[in-house]
Structures are given as C-alpha cells and as structure tokens.
Amino acid sequence: MESDQEETLEVQEAISLSLADGRDPEEEEIMLAMAVSIACASEEEEKRRVLDNDANDEMEQLDFAVAMSLSEMSELDDEPQLTESEALFECQCCSDDRCLLAEVFMCEGSCMFCKECIKRGTEVAIGEGKTVIDCFAACSKVIGDDVLRIVLPGQVFEQLQQHRQMEEVEAAGLEDLERCPACSFAIIMTETEFTVLICGNPTCRKETCRLCKEDSHLPLSCAEVERDSVTQARTHLENAATEAMVRECVKCNTRFLQEDGCNKMTCQCGATSCYICRKPVADYSHFYGQGGQPEPGKCPLYTDNVKLHRNEVKEAVQAAKRQMNPGDLNHCHGSISNNSDDDVDSEDDDSEDGNNVDYED
After folding, report:
1. CA distances from 130 to 126, 138, 167 (A)
2. Do 37 and 30 form a contact (C-beta atoms < 8 A)?
3. Cα 193–206–212 angle (5° rounding)?
4. Which of 306, 312, 241 has its CA nearest to residue 278?
5. What pLDDT does residue 114 have?
6. Helical H runs in 110-218?
7. pTM of the complete model beyond 0.85
8. How many CA atoms lie within 13 A of 167 on its CB side?
9. pLDDT tens digits, residue range 90-148?
C-alpha cells in the first residue's frame, strides 16, 4: 500500500512539474487521470486485503469450533458404555428408574415391571380372591404364568393354580363332587359305599369322612364316634383349633383360610374384610404398611400367618380345655389336647427372641 501511495505522489509531482514547465494541457489531464486511477486501485487493493483478513479470521474460528467438537466426541467415546446387564429401565408400577433391564418382567402387553412389584401385586390380588392377575399398568392385558412361575414362591404359585382349578370345578356345576376339608382338592365320588375321602393332594393326603367331614374314623360309624365322650372331647378341641384359624365372609359366610399375602380380603361376593380382626373394611385405610409403626385401631397389611395361626390355635385350645371335663382330657392320647401346647412351645421360644406376631384387633 505504501508503494502505491509513493507512485501516486510521484505522478502528482510529475503533473506539477509539467505545469511549471508549460506542458500541453491535454497531457496534464491524462497524467491527472492516471493518478486518480492509481489511487482508486490502491483503495480497492486495501479493501481486498481487509476482506481476506476477515475471511482468514472466520476460518480460524471455524477450525477451532470443529476441533472442540471432535475433542468432545472423543471424550464421549472414551466414557464406559453400559452393558446389556447394566442397562436400566423405569418400573411402570413403582416408577423406580434404576431397575436393571436384565431383571425386567413384562405383562402380555409388554408393560415393564420390577420383580418386587410383580410379587407384591400378585400376592395382594390372590388375597382378594383373584385368579387372573391383571396388568398393574391397566393396559387391559394380564401377567402370564411364565412370569408368575419365576417371580412367585412355589407355594404361592401352587395356591394360585389351586384357586383356578376350584373356580373351574365350581363353574362346571358337577354332581357328587367331594372336597377335602383341609385343602382345595376335589374329586367326583359316585359310589356311596365309600365313605372315606383320601385327598389326592401330595402335600395333604388327609383321610376324612365324607359324611361328618371329620378325620376318618373307620370302622366306627359317625354316630358311634359321637357317642364316645373321649372322641367328642378330641373333636371339640380340634374344632376349636380349626375355628380359630378359619375365617368367614362377613356377607355370605363363605369359609376361607389364607397362608400368606395381603390381609385385606375380598370375597367372591364382593365383601371386603380384615384377615386379622375379621371386621368389614372399606379400603386400605384400616391397615398400616409393612415395617410401619403400629397405630391404634389399625391392623398390619402383611403378617406371618403361620405364627398368627399358631397363636390363635393356642389361645382357642386353652379356652376350650377350661370348659371340658378334666377326665376326658386325660384320655385324649395323641390328640390336640396333649400336643397343642408342645406345638406352640416353639412359637413361645420364637416370641422370646422377638419373632412374635405383630398385630392388633
């Protein structure tokens, strides 16, 4: 740029000298035009240089941005990626978003749940008398047996299957249907001469009289058994123990027994009651949650029903003994009168260790 200015000055000086020397005016005009043209060219050159510098600055900024982006992408690539077994999902029941995808369980509509929600929700549904477990996300689908078989304890799944079988049997309206008083086993027995029902349930196998529904008393008849005072005493104690455990629907008087699950019971007739205090309930406000502090007038939602039943049997048998003839009690060898106390002694030992049943009336 300095050289262009110097040339312009030289031209102007030359023009001035030519005027001083008395040169031709036309030549002077030509020289003046040349000077102006050189000056304009210099200005254009300066503008191009400024534009080139700006473009170079923009390119440098763009190169810097690209380099930063590549650096960030490289850092992301270097971060450890979750494996399939470490991937997480959100349970559609409890909304926990830190559940392992490897432990997901789905309904038949592909709703995703954690194992604990499937287990707890199914136990509550069984306690309410349901045999079909609806999706907990209310998608109108059900939880399949393939999932329940994995999630539920074997005893609970077997209980669900037995409930389903009983529903099917009852819906069929079969005649001559005999049921085991101790479990849900049922069989059709058309031969009236056979008065003993042998339960086909491998976990029960109890033998009962089809007529009086008591333990098999062959070769004695039901009437002969009833005339035996000692047997009556034994039967009285056994009935007291049974009645202590068995509940009745507050509406239709259907008898039922629950081994585990939610203590809010729903009968097939629609009535709801508390398994602990046996009173009608409207909703879950009657209960306090598992691990919660006991509240006056409320019962626990979950309990160890094995221990609960043992305590109930102990109290019922002791009350029944106080009403009986001591002589009859002394002859009840092998019956509940002699071993019921032994059965609950172990329960008392557990209670001393702090394992007693926690419930309120």
Report:
1. 5, 15, 10
2. no
3. 50
4. 312
5. 92
6. 115-127, 145-151, 154-172
7. no
8. 11
9. 998 888 888 888 888 999 999 999 999 998 888 888 878 788 899 998 888 999 999 99
